[in-house]
Amino acid sequence: MGGVFFSQPWRNLPEDKQEDLAFVKNYQPRNKRAKYLRILLYGPVGAGKSSFINSVDSILQGRITWQAETDASSGSSFTRKYKTYKIHKGPDDYYSFVFNDTMGFENYANTGVLVGDVKLALKGHVEEGYKFSPSQKLMEGDKGYRSAPTLDDKVHVLVCVFPVGSVSLISEEVVKKLREVRRAASHMGIPELAILTNVDKACPKTNRNIKDAYKSQYLKQQVDAFSLLLDIPQDCIFLVKNYGSDGNMNDDNDALILSPLRQMITFGEDFLNDL
Questions:
Q1: Which of 35, 81, 158, 265 has the most crowded CB, counting CB atoms within 10 A?
Q2: Is residue 197 a contact partner of residue 161, using CB atoms and an 8 Å limit?
Q3: What are the domain boundaries of the chain?
Q4: CB neighbour list of residue 92: distance below 8 Å, 6 or more residues apart
Q5: Which pTM value belongs to this model?
């Protein structure tokens, strides 16, 4: 897989990661009603949502971190509770954006996170620590339901996370769930983008030189296919290799992760300022 490469990249990354890194580190919402910009990650089981949070945290801390727990050995979602992940900027300070991870979507109607619960999360109705149930949607009056969400509680940008090597294998049931969440976000005016993970596993030649991710014809085909499936513009779909347990970090992979992160913040900031 992924043996043929274009002579020129079909998307350019910054030559130096420092500009994106400085943007991320210095970001502050201009809308003073929002203390944090909230980024919600959604997608199928095992897509790499928690790993992406850890990868961002690792870059900003300068070392491999494991704030969000992951489990690659399980066929079901490891994330069960709705949790906000803040990234430390100092001993008593945090960066001005946060992540929320969701239980993953699964192939069958009564497994994985319910679409209705993700819609409630978008609106800020899901409280911190709520345990997702594959069989029972959160309802008003239930424990874990926030009846009067503030702007800080609501989602400001939505990110679909999907393993790039599984694009051609995606089931109709998962596509249906992803599309339904997208429609809900669109009706609320919430901006959206996608990250396709595991580019190193899908394209071994890219793994040898991660800078070539956007030269791979195979990876370009997967981006095109995913764009058609979910009607997400191609320039809003990014390739990512999350950091794992090998403990090796490098500037080229940092740049691959920081590029979509900067776009998430930019989209979310525009949304906050349009309110």
A1: 158
A2: yes
A3: 36-274
A4: none
A5: 0.94
